[in-house]
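Exam revision sheet. Question 4 asks you to relate a sequence to its structure. Input first:
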Amino acid sequence: MKEPPSYHIFDSNTTPWYLHKTALLPAAPQLVRRVGLRTVSTYAYALLQTAGVGAASEESLEVGGGILSLVLRGSIPTQTVLLILIIFSIVSWAVIALKLRQFYSVDAQTSSFVEVFRRSSKFSEVQSVCKSLSHSPLAGVFQAGYVELNSQLRQSDDSVGAGGDAPAESSGRPVLRSFDALDRALLRAATAEVTKLERRVPFLATTASITPFIGLLGTVWGIILAFQGIGETGSTSLAVVAPGIAEALVATAAGLFAAIPAVYFYNHLTQKVKEMASAMDDFSLEFLNIAERNFS
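Answer key, C-alpha cells:
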C-alpha cells in the first residue's frame, strides 16, 4: 500500500491540511492518529508546566507569607522600629479624633454664643448663658471682660460713695476708669483660650517630622541585613537579598503611614486655631466698643 504524504502539520508550513489538493481519504486514519498523538502530548506538556507554576506559586506563598509574616520573622531592631511607629500612629489618630470633636463643639457653641450676644441688650443676660456654652472661646473672653468691667464699675461707685470726685458728665452714670486695663484683660483671656485650643496639636507636628526618620532607620537596618546576607552566603540572588529589602520597604511605608495623616490634620487644626483667634480678636474689639459707648 502506498505511503501517504507527510503534511507537516506542526512545522513552518502554514497551509491547513484540509485545504491541500491531494486526496486524503486513503491516509485519513493514520493522519488522525498522528494528529491525536501530538495534540495529547502537547496538552500533557502544558499541564505539567501549569502544575510546575502552581507548585512554585505555593512555595513562594509559603516563603513570603504576606507582610504580617514578614514582620513577625523580622529582626528585633526592625520590629522595634515598627512598634514605635505604630505607637506614634495610634496616639496621633487619638489626638486627631479628640481635637476634631473639640472643634465641632467649639464651632456649634460659638455660633450660639454670638447669637445670644447680638440679641441681648445687657451684659448680665449674656453672662447667664456662658456656663452652658463653656466650650466656646468667646464665652471665656466675655467672662474675663465682664469681671474686669464689673470690678472697675464697683470701684468707681465705692469712690463716689466715700466722698471721691465723680466725673462731671456722669450724673450718677457708672464710668470705667481704664479701658487699657479692660483691653489687657480681654487679651489675656484670648491668649488662654488659644493655648487651650492648641493643646495636643504640637504632637501631630512631632509625629509628622520624626516618624519618617524612624522609618528611615528601619530602612537602613534592612539594607544592612541584606548586605550581611550577601556577605555570609557569597550570593546576590533574590532569595538572599529580598528579606532585608522587604523589611526596609515595610519600615519606610510604616513611617509614611504615620506621618502623612499627622501633617494633614496638623495643618487643618492649626488653621482652625487661627480662625478662632481672629474671631476672639474681633469680639474683643466689639466688646470694647460697647463698653466705651455705655461707660465712658
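Marking note for examiners. Confidence is low (pLDDT under 50) at residues 6-12, 17-29, 31-64, 162-170.
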